[in-house]
Amino acid sequence: MLAAVILSGFVTARGIDVESRPSWLEHGFGKFDVGANAHQEEAHLGIDWTPAEWLTIHAHGLARRKGGLVEAYADLRKGDFRLRAGQFFLPTSRENTDRLWSSPYTISFSALNTWIGEEVRPIGGELQWQHLTSNAVVTIAGGAFRGNDTMGTLLGWRGWSIGNHLAVYNEVLPLPPLPFFPDQRRDGTQSIGRDLDGRTGLTARARVSLPERATLQLARVDNRGDRELYRGEYSWQTKLNLLSGEIDGQHGTTLASEYGWGSSGMGFAPRANVQITYYAAYALVSQKFGRNRVSARFDVFGTKDRDHSFAEINTESGRAWTFAYFYELRSIRLGAEFANISAERVSAPDPNTDGRTVTLEARYRF
Predict the structure, then answer these.
(1) Tens digits of per-residue pLDDT, 207-260?
(2) Distant-in-sequence, close-in-space partners of 308: CB < 8 Å, separation ≥ 6
(3) Residues 171, 175, 180, 184: what is their CA dihedral angle, to the nearest 10 degrees?
(4) Looking at residue 250, what DSSP letter applies?
(5) 8 A C-beta contact, residue 117 and residue 109
(6) For residue 58, how far is the Cα from the chain centroid?
């Protein structure tokens, strides 16, 4: 029997002790969502409506100081095929596997998935073919999208970060000062919003899964931006490759890892322009026993300046350690996390962008 409407969500409160540069959310170069001791509260609500066996409509919104729509899409199914259309995350993450693109392992996300949560959200369609063999599930998918033209802006101007900020539709994310680009909008970048250049981006992915044992996936995203300026925003030309894997043990152990790499750029020489290559990777181990879960994650990340123009030098490198503990009480999850970043960004006023946080969290899920 089909459920007419299913509601799911969670409400989260956090207290955070921070030792870091001013946060990127405050137009700084700090690597966390907060740059001083702070508290955060937010609520996520998901709605799934299945009016027919072949159709599901999903929406995911969040409430915070600047809340809004995270995802909204429709799934149409026929045999081994599924067509998804709307605004959605590509199913690539090996850590953000819980409901509403949350992580069961840590409070913050890896640098790679932090950036995806902020800037990578196709608005379009994806056709997926999934076939069950005698002992494996094979998935092949491809899609086309509009929007996401500014994807890469944060990596170019701010660099990598670690947090759990999910951008919503039409949200403007802050940028550090841009002295060489007076035409760039000063208040920030709108990562998820209307299309700028009228060009269609492409996605592709392939996955092999051994149910409840292991998963291996390769994906590619190319927004095909034209690098031109539109209404104070550049359309960045960004390519992203993702290789990921996961092993699930028989006794509550999970090993997960992802590696993302690619290039991004805007503008044209001899005018001011930006061209970077980038990479980020993490390895995560998590153990669940009873109501408890402990997790550890190691990140490495970097960008390399390739344009050699008069603009800022957008080279950086860094690594991070994260340790988290959760205790489950039915619908309540209590958690604690320590995160430490060691990073250097050449163009920052102080190239040393090290930082660390201690976070306590309480989450009510329904």
Answers:
(1) 999 988 999 999 999 999 999 999 888 999 999 999 999 999 889 999 999 999
(2) none
(3) 0
(4) T
(5) yes
(6) 19
Whole-number Å distance between alpha carbons of 119 and 193: 10
165 neighbors 171 (Cβ within 8 angstroms): no
> What is the C-alpha to C-alpha distance for residues 118 and 86, in angstroms, rounded to an integer?
17
Instruction: Give 345's strand partners.
Output: 316
Full domain range(s) for residue 322: 5-365
- For 182, the token pair is 């007076």
CATH code, domain carrying 201: 2.40.160.10
| Residue 313 pLDDT class (50, 70, 90 cuts) | confident
Residue pair 313/347 in contact by the 8 Å Cβ criterion: yes
- The residue written with tokens 């123009």 in the block is 309
Chain CA centroid to CA 38, Å: 22
Return the closest-CA partner of residue 171 out of 47, 61, 273.
Answer: 61
Count of domains in the chain? 1
Query: Which residue is listed with tokens 């073919």?
Result: 129
Structure tokens at 237: 């030309």
Measured CA to CA, the distance from residue 189 to residue 148 in angstroms comes to 11
Give the tokens for residue 34: 């907060």
Instruction: For 252-308, write each residue's pLDDT tens digit.
Output: 999 999 999 999 999 987 777 899 999 999 999 999 999 999 999 999 999 999 987
Rounded Cα gap, residues 282 and 315, in angstroms: 20
3-state secondary structure of 100: helix
Residue pair 166/117 in contact (Cβ under 8 Å)? The answer is yes
Q: Where are the beta strands (DSSP E) in the chain?
A: 5-19, 38-52, 55-63, 68-78, 81-87, 123-132, 137-146, 172-173, 189-190, 201-210, 214-222, 229-230, 233-234, 237-248, 253-267, 273-289, 292-305, 316-329, 332-345, 355-365
SS3 263: strand
Q: Where are the alpha helices (DSSP H) in the chain?
A: 111-119, 153-157
Query: Taking the model in full, what pTM does it have?
Result: 0.95
Both structure tokens of 80: 């081994």
The terminus-to-terminus CA distance of the chain in angstroms comes to 22
Radius of gyration over every alpha carbon of the chain, rounded to an integer in angstroms: 20
